[in-house]
């Protein structure tokens, strides 16, 4: 997205909070026009997807929550075959890596400062996207084991995708590598990098609108070399490397970014969201969970 198109969108919609209980009119229109969802289309596609899952050996007999299935239909713009493939990939990975989806002990939120590396912003982009900043320098692998880090990532994605606004409008990510060291690089094994790639691209029903890289360190180049080989051209074209944080304002309103990046946001009223989501995650079985609204 160019800065011009971003600014045009910023003028067309108001700034909305992350936590919402309804779909605004412009999002409802996007759902119908861009994602091709109507009540009748949803009903027919859910029935078709359920039948496909019933015929699959290891998913037959599982009573999937309709909200969970709808996440995948929205992700694929109601292509039931693609939705089935995404969901099948998730369930196969879940079968192979069972502990990956357990969440983390609640006390970690009181004792592990590393969890502050996940920064969910309390305001959305004007087009409704959810914004997450990953501050990798705040993650200490000696404090929080890499397995717990991976469990937190899985929990974060699966819980945040229960939000219909995020399902429809997608994510924008800012990856901040300030303060990363060789200790962080050692965690970036090919298997770990592939796990994150495979989960995000082939398993989770997320829509990834923009990915921003700031404060590059020696960690970035080797990781990007590995990951970009797997990415489609569409996704690669949505990755932006910035020489300064000021460049972020070509894509984000100043009002939604924290003051540490030159923005106006001083307080984050959703900083406890991750802990609450982790508590909810114990109810996220293979059948999924209902939406937040």
What would you say this structure looks like, in words?
One of its GO terms (molecular function) is phosphatidylinositol bisphosphate binding. One of its GO terms (cellular component) is membrane. This is Clavesin-2. By secondary structure, the protein is an alpha/beta fold. The chain contains 13 helices and 5 strands. It has helices at residues 3-12, 25-33, 39-55, 66-75, 80-96, 108-111, 146-160, 164-169, 182-185, 190-203, 220-228, 233-236, 273-281, and strands at residues 118-120, 130-135, 171-176, 208-214, 239-241. The two termini are 30 Å apart.
| Count of distinct strands | 5
Beta-strand fraction estimate: 5-15%
Cα distance spanning the termini:
30 Å
Rg, alpha carbons: 19 Å
What spatial order of strands do you see in the largest sheet? 1-2-3-4-5
The major sheet is characterized as: 5 strands, mixed
Regions with pLDDT < 50 over 5+ consecutive residues? 1-12
Number of helices: 13
Compressed to H and E, one letter per element, the order equals HHHHHHEEHHEHHEHHEH
Q: Helicity level, as a percent range?
A: 40-55%
Alpha-beta content class: alpha/beta
Shape: globular
Average pLDDT: 94
Question: Which key phrases capture this entry?
Answer:
293 residues, alpha/beta, five-stranded mixed sheet, 5 strands, disordered N terminus
In short:
With 293 residues, the protein is of the alpha/beta class. It is built from 13 helices and five strands.
């Amino acid at each position: 997205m160019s800065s011009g198109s971003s600014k045009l969108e910023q003028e067309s919609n108001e700034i909305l909070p992350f936590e919402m209980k309804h779909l605004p009119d412009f999002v409802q229109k996007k759902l119908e026009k861009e994602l091709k969802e109507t009540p009748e289309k949803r009903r027919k596609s859910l029935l078709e997807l359920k039948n496909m899952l019933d015929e699959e050996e290891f998913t037959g007999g599982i009573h999937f929550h309709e909200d969970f299935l709808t996440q995948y239909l929205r992700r694929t713009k109601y292509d039931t075959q693609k939705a089935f493939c995404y969901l099948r990939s998730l369930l196969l990975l879940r079968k192979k890596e069972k502990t990956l989806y357990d969440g983390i002990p609640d006390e970690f939120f009181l004792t592990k400062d590393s969890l502050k590396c996940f920064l969910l912003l309390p305001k959305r982009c004007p087009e409704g996207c959810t914004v997450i900043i990953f501050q990798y320098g705040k993650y200490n692998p000696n404090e929080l084991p890499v397995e717990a880090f991976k469990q937190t990532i899985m929990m974060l994605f699966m819980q945040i995708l229960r939000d219909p606004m995020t399902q429809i409008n997608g994510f924008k990510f800012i990856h901040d590598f300030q303060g990363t060291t060789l200790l962080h690089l050692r965690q970036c094994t090919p298997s770990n990098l592939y796990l994150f790639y495979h989960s995000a691209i082939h398993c989770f029903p997320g829509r990834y609108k923009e990915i921003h890289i700031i404060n590059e360190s020696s960690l970035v180049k080797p990781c990007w070399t590995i990951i970009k080989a797997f990415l489609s051209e569409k996704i690669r074209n949505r990755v932006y490397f910035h020489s300064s944080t000021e460049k972020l304002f070509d894509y984000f309103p100043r009002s939604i970014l924290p003051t540490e990046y030159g923005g106006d946001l001083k307080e984050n009223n959703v900083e406890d969201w991750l802990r609450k989501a982790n508590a909810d995650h114990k109810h996220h079985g293979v059948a999924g969970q209902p939406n937040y609204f």
